[in-house]
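Quick question, first post here. What does this chain look like in 3D?
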Amino acid sequence: MIGSVLAGSYEILRCIGEGGMGRVYEARHTRVGTKRFAVKMLHDEMAHQPDIVTRFLREAQSAATIAHANVVDVFDVDHLADGRPYIVTEYLIGQEFGELLDQRKKLTPAQALPIVRQICRALQAAHELGIVHRDMKPENVFLVGAADAPQVKVIDFGISKQSDDSAKLTRTGMVMGTPSYMAPEQARGEHVDHRADIYAVGGVLYRALTGHKPFEGEDGAQVLTLVLTSEPRRPRSLNPAIPEALELVIHRAMAREPRDRHASMAELEADLRELDPSVGLEPEQRASQAPSAPQLGTQPVTTTRPRAATIQAQRIEREVRAARPTLVLLTLVGYGWVVVTVVVALADGLRFMRGSQGRLTPSEGLLIGIGTFVATLTPAVLWIVHLRRRVWSNTVTSVEFSRRLRRSLLAGVIAQASLGLLVDLVEGTVLRLPMGQLRAACSTPVVLTSLALTALTFWALGRRTNRK
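> Answer (accepted):
Ran it through. C-alpha cells below.
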C-alpha cells in the first residue's frame, strides 16, 4: 500500500501499526501536503467476513456520530477496488495510555485523575447518543499534546453498541470485550448498558493507581471466572497512598450490580473532580505533577476548588477511614449486647418461674452464660466470615454495612431501654407489684422484641440501599 493514493486524496506514506485485524497507515493529503491522516484498513482475509466488516464500519459510524474533543475524529470511510473497507481518521501523535502505564507501572492521583475524567467526558457524550463503548481499557485511550496540557482521545469503537441497534451484531450469551475490565453482566453475555462502561472506567482507574489490572490470570477464561466470582483486591492494599475516598469511588464504579454503580459518567466525573488534586492548580503546577509522557488534559483550570466540595471530600475521607474500624467495634459491641441481654433474659425467666424470692446459684448463672455463648458462637462466626468475604475488601460495602449496623444497633438498644422503662412504670404505678416481678416476667419478650427490631432495621436499610 505504500505510495498508493486512496480516493484521489490520501497518499499512503508508511505503516505505523499492525494487529490481528488489520493495519494502520500514515497518509498525506495530496492537495494539502501538510495535512496528515491515519488510515485504518482490514487485512484481506478479514475483509471477507461480514460480521467483522460490519463492526469495522460501526467503529467509524460511532466515532463520527459522537464528535467530541476527547474522541478520535473520523473524516472518511470508503472501499478499495478489491472491496476492502478503510477508515480515515485524525493522525494522533503521542502514546497509548496502556503503554504509558506499562512504562510507569502506576500514577499518582494528580497524574491519573485528569486523564480518567476526560475519558468520563468522552463516554458521557457517547452515552447521550445511545452509544456504549463496551471495550474501555487503557489501550483504547490515546494521549496527545504537550505534557503540561495533554489531551485524551478515546479510540476503537469497533464493538460499540447503539441503543437503536437493529443490526443485531451481538446476541445474548455472546461475550465481547477485554476480560480484565469487563463488567460481570457483560462477562455473563447479558444485555449491557452505559453502566458497563462505568465499571470499565473504574477498572482503568484501578490499573492506573495500583499498577495492576483488577483481575489477572493465566488466560482469558480464568480472568472471566474471577470477574464472575470474586472482588478485586483492595486498591489501598496494593498502593496505600491512594486516598480512602478515592478507593470508595473506584469500588462504587466497579460494583458487581449495575444499580449500585454511578448513575452516569457525569456523576462519576463529578466525584473524581472533587478528589482531583490538580483542580485549582496553575498550569505550571500541573505540569510538575504530570507524567513524563504525553497524556490527556483539560482546558487550563485556574479557579480554586469550592470550599463546600473540599469539606464534602474531607467528610467522605473520614467516613471511609473509619468504616472498617467501626465495623470491628460495632461487631464486638453488638455481640456483647446480644450475649448480655440473652443471659439476663434467661436468668430473669428462671427467677420468675421460681417466684419473686427465687435466686440463681453461681453454677446456674455460669451454665446460662456458657450456654448462651455456645448458642451465639456459630452465628457470630458466620457473620465474621460474611464480613471477610463479602464486605471487608469493598470500601462501598464496608461504609454501607457500618452505617446499617450502627443504626440497627441503636434502634435495638433504644427499643430495649424504652420497653424496659415502660415495664417499670406499669409495674410501679399501675399494677403496684413488688419491684422486679413484672420485669422478670417481661424480660424475655422485651429482649426478643429488641433483637427482632434490630434485625428488621438492618434488613430494611439494606432494602432501601438496593432500591437506590
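The first strand starts at residue 5 and ends at 6.
The mean pLDDT is 83.
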